[in-house]
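Let us practice reading a record.
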Amino acid sequence: DADPGQVAAMTSQIKSMFTPGAMTKGVDVTSATTAAREAAEDEDHEMGERERGLAEQAAHVASMWLDRVTDLEAPGLTGAALSRSEWIEETMPVWASLVDPVADGLSAAIRDSFTSRLQGPDAPDLQALGLPAGMDLSMLTQQLAPFVDTMASSLITGQTAEAVGALSSDTLTATEAGVPLLSGRVGLLPGNVAAFAEGLDVPLDEVWLHLAAREAARTRLFTAVPWIGPQILAAIQSYARGMAIDTDAIDAAVREVDPSDPSAIQEALTGGFLNPTPTAAQRAALAQLETWLALVEGWVEHVAARATDAHLPHTAAMTETIRRRRATGGPAEKTFAGLVGLELRPRRLRDAANLFAALEERVGATGRDGVWAHPDVAPTGADLDDVLGFVERTAAGGSSASDDLDAALESILREADEGGSAAGGSGASPDGQ
C-alpha cells in the first residue's frame, strides 16, 4: 500500500516542478567533474615546468622512435603532463557519454516503480494530495518524468564522479584504458608514474620513456585510423544501453526512503542497481569490444616494444609488467565496472600482440599496419583464434586484397559523383532551390 506520508512528500516535490527549475538528464558533466576533482585533490599536485618539460621531451623521443617502426602518422602530437584533476576535467565528457545510456534505463526503472505505487484500489486520491484538479495518473506520470530524470541524473552523476575520480589515481597515461579520451596530445600523469615506478627495478626516466612510447603509439593509432576510436566507444555505449536494471533494488529503495530526497535514494542504491546477467545483445557487444581493445593494445604493445628495444634495456621486462597490469585491472577499474557493468580489459592482448608480430615477420611493417585500412579487413575474434591462418590469408591476398578495397571505395565515390551530376542536370541546386 502507498504510505500517505511518503506520497505527500513525493507530490510536494512534483509540484515544485511547476515552477522553472534546473532539471537534468544523464550525467551532469560539470557536477561530476567538480566532485571527482575534489576527491582527487587530496593527493594531487599541480604540474610545474619540470613535469611539462619531461612530458614534452619523452613524447618527442618516443615519436622519433615510432617513426622508424610504423608508417602510421599523427603529425603535430605533443607531450602533456597532466595532474589528476586535469585528466578528470579533460576526459569526463567522454566518460559521461559512455554512462548516459545507463541513466536512461535507471530513469525508466525509477519512474515505473513510483508509478506502480500510485495504482490499484488502494491508490490515494491525487486531488486530495493537492495536485491540480483533473490530473489523472497518466498526467501525473508525465509530470513525474523530469523529476525522475533529475533523480537518476543525481545518482549516475555521483557514481560517475566516484569512478572517474578513482581511475585518476591509477591511470598512468591519458588513454591507458584503451578508450580515446584525449586527442592530439600524448598525456602522462607524472604523479602516478612515479608511484608506479617505485615498485620496479627500472630507472624512472626509462619508465617514462616506455610509457610515453606506448601512449604515443596508442594516440598515433587513434589519429591515423579514425574509425577505431568510434568503434570502441560505440561498443561500450551499446553494452551500457542494454544493461538491465535491478528492479527489485529500485522498488526497495523507492519504498523505504523519502522520495523527495534524491540523495537518500542514491545512498540506498550504492550497493548496486545493475542486473549482472548480460543479454544476448550485450554479449555480442562485449565480444566486439574485447576484440577491438585487444587489437589496439596488441598493436600498441608490439610496436612500442619494437620502437624501444634498441634504446631501452628493460623493454622486455616493462612489456610484461604492463601486460600483467592491463590483464588484471585494479580497484579503480572495478569501480567503473560497477557503473556500466563491464571491465575495460583487453583479455586477448597476448593473442593480438602475437598476431601483429607474426604479420610483421610475414608481410613487413607496412603489411602489418595495412589491416587497419578499413573495419572490414581488420582482424576479428575468429582471427585471434587462428593467428597463423589469418597471417597466411593476408599474405596470400597481398596487394590484391588492398586493390579490391581501393576499387570498392573508388566505385562508391564514383556512384556518389554520378548521383550528384544527375541531380545537377535536373536543375536542382545544392540547397534544393
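A brief commentary: Residues 10 and 259 are 5 Å apart (CA to CA).
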